[in-house]
Amino acid sequence: MEKATVLFTPDNLAVDVEPGTSLLQAANLAGIELVSSCGGDGTCGRCLVKVQDGYVKVKDGGNISPRAKKAGLVLACKTFAEGNVVVDIPSRSRLEEHQVLLDEQLLLEKDIDGAEGFSLQPLCQKLAVTLTPPTLEENIADWERLQTAIRSALSCSDVRISMSVLRQLPEALRAGDWQVTVGVTQINGCAEVITIEPGHTTSREVYGVAIDIGTTTVAAQLIDLVNGFTVSKKGSYNKQARFGDDVISRIIHASERPEGLAELHQTIISTINDLLAELLQPGNLAAKDVLMVTVAANTTMTHLFLGLPPKYIRLEPYIPLAAATPPVKAQELGINVNPEAYVVCFPSVASYVGGDIVSGTLVTNVAKDERVTLFIDIGTNGEMVLGNQDWLVSAACSAGPAFEGGGITYGMRAMKGAIDSVDIDPETFEVKVSTIGRCKARGICGSGLIDCLATFRNVGIIDRAGKMQTDIQTPRLRQSDEGWEFILVYGAESESGRDIVITENDIKNLLRAKAAVYAGIRSMLNAVQLEMEMIERVLIAGGFGNYLNIGDAITIGLLPDLPAEKYTFIGNSSLKGARLALISKEAWQEAQELGEKITYLELSAGNDFMEEFMSALFLPHTDMSLFPSITNVK
Ligand code: FES
To answer: Which atom of ligand 1 lies at the shortest distance from residue 244's CA?
Structure first.
């Protein structure tokens, strides 16, 4: 059958596909990444495109809002090319635009209280070794000769070598006149020779890469392991996003499609290889000089990165295949560094408290501090650790995608054009918004939504249950096919020319998300019989924290009502921990111990979480005594 040509505008990229191919697949083939939070199931309503010309078949059953339909949009995953088609992609439907901001946003260097204290003892180093040549009388074999020298140089009794390097040894020793430079990793008390060069090479360049694999984004740093300095850093979105936004849709894809796991594995490897190429580019550095890689990721991402089936992570009783995984050679994974380099992943605590949280706990020294600390990473899941030097508990609650813009009519991630703050005049209800990048508004991101909810409550647009107060006098409040909504930005001022609104349903979704996080914190405190005010510091990790206003977060009851000075934003602590482990054997060892030391609290066991969740579905809470600083309740 003749192929159909799909032309995407405004890119002017054309791709030939079999008739019956979805526009989502066609876009992927053309190298255009669309937002496809549900992985193409038709449920998220975000892969919106406009068919300008040609013949398509639109399948029923997708979740598309009446508003989008009215604007002539269709879901790319539910629309199939039947002949030549011209398809326009609105900017809001694109994934790739995250990238630019990511570099600034994810890699913010911020001081973390107490992160120092580890000396520079990298997981991999190069050693210049001089051996005594053998004689007829002293005829020890080549490898045992080298092994003895390395044992004494590193004070390590267990020294190994891979077969491929062992084969190079005799010629290298003789070519260098019994002087060689060896690359040696030291992981978990065992040293291994992974490279060998004849002579004492003038440049003993050795690099490592620290990687944070997030569900949405991936960030990496190239580190000079001789001095511990950061050479370059890069970030990008996780290309796995085309299989769904959250870990659950990716687990389903990996478990229910024959090629699913391989596809997800290859996609994250390709994301990382692209980043590696960018990391090495500035100094024209060679991939062969990268001898160590540390990876911090949530449990599902760790499984997919290593090609391990994640199926049972989402099935009760939620068990991962492995919490701690063995080191693996880069060549086995297809990572473009020295093929003999080791890749090590931070251990997880449980299915929903992963290596990224262990990494963050490591770098923030929570386990060494006498103060009771709440460490929290808010995304689709709220993952948290509570404790001090004597004890540590962790939990995860499903906040849903609202804080990342999912399930919100004009929700979007924190990228250019996203509304990040909202100001409303309490008398006239006139609105002022600011956007990331100071450009025309395209939608609203998590911090903007929190600000908006707090402002709505403060000026009386909504009541404590999140219901719109329909008696207020402003043309901005109106009723649509989907119920009551408030216009934040009129079409004349928005990028798309359409009004940007917040609906009552959006508010409901936000209430559920914030209630889940707060209920998680309360349930953890209940489990260890502590009161909220006993928390001495709160560390907020993740890109979301960079734009979050603590006052607003307390006003809506997302975070505990504690003095502002107790709160610190710590940026990407997962990446920082991965970097720390790379340059400190001691820190890596501590991370292994942390994985075992942190107790996991399963919030779905018992009724406590559900009761806390129901009580937190108000602004800020049904029990106002928990929010003493909030007095202006309307
Ligand atoms: Fe198309 Fe979700 S609705 S990808």
So the answer is: 4
